[in-house]
Amino acid sequence: MDEQLRQLENTFSARIEDLQVKIAFQDDFIESLNQMVASQQQTILALQKQMQVLYQRVESYQNGENGVEPFDPSQEIPPHY
Predict the structure, then answer these.
(1) Structure confidence at residue 57 (pLDDT)
(2) Contact 63, 70 (CB under 8 A)
(3) What pLDDT digit, counting tens, does each position of 13-27 carry?
(4) pLDDT tens digits, residue range 40-74?
(5) Which pLDDT score, from 0 to 100, does residue 17 have?
(6) Distance of alpha carbon 47 from its chain centroid, rounded?
(7) Which is nearest to 58 in space by CA: 50, 24, 74, 2?
(8) How wide is the angle at C-alpha 9 spanned by C-alphas 4 and 15, nearest 5°?
(9) What are the residue ranges of helices labelled H in 1-81?
(10) How many whole angstroms separate alpha carbon 20 and alpha carbon 12?
(11) How wide is the angle at C-alpha 10 spanned by C-alphas 6 and 14, nearest 5°?
């Protein structure tokens, strides 16, 4: 009976160790994913700011606010004429 108890205890200890190792790997993986998502979020925010600036520039050019007439392709003469 004592031997069976020892074998059962060893089996449970091995299973607990396996679970602890799996949890440690999962924690590391989750942390790396978290860092990746945070980095991607910063990139997305930077890209959104750049797009906003570009939209503002396009709107200002279309409205002729920069001293430059808006581009009208129907009024543009091709260079070979």
Answers:
(1) 85
(2) yes
(3) 999 999 999 999 999
(4) 999 999 999 999 999 888 888 777 666 666 667 77
(5) 96
(6) 11
(7) 50
(8) 130
(9) 2-62
(10) 12
(11) 170
